[in-house]
Model the fold of this input.
Amino acid sequence: MAFGRRKNEPATPADDTPAAEVPEAASAAEPDEVDEVDADYDGGPFDVEDFDNPDDALEARLDLGSVLVPMPAAGQIQVELNEVGVPSAVWVVTPNGRFTIAAYAAPKSPGLWREVAKELADSLRKDNAQVSIQSGPWGREVVGIGAGVVRFIGVDGYRWMIRCVVNGAPEAMENLVAEAREALGDTVVRRGDTPLPVRTPLPVQLPEPMLEQLRQAAAQQAQMVAAQQALVQEQQAQGQPPTERRSASGSAMQQLRSSSTGG
Done:
């Protein structure tokens, strides 16, 4: 099984995918040295096309559609849903904090992560966070410190860019970053052949057991809301003050958060 560069990929592939221009020079706060990949690093993330048998990529990894992510020993899964109930992010939660790994459409040639990293740093500064650009196994990593700590790690691949967001308390970040880097280094990207605009998030697809948990949680939530509404209506009809209700916001996700083991 070949690792690293996609099979038959030239060392400097031609870029025939439209993309925004990448800055030619970093600012003084972001020296070029942070873009240098660790010369001793020979791991991933990998492209599914790097495997002689794509089924091998599924071994010991959580299949999320566009990314296949290995789970830490004590890791659990937390799913974020958008306003229409579609999974928008999948977080790996450990005793040290949490991280998420997601892939995006990108040009064939590298450079998108450098552009995105600069934008993330600028956004953090606008939010009054303390920002630093640090060097990691894949080059530059963006670190923001506010109420907590967030670290963005990115890797340019063949027609994809992968981004890992690491979020935790300052005292646990060293161990959390090590967990995130280990997972990222063994992650597999399933880009697909569909042409997509640069920066388009590659779709997240949950395994069927997780989808079933979400359905059950949503059904239970709907039943609870209906029962609470019926109770309020009954109390109002009898002239009684309504019973205080617990907020139902986000409960489907919270139930999955507490019950899922990532399987």
About this structure: The chain is about 25% helix and 25% strand. The first helix runs from residue 112 to 126.
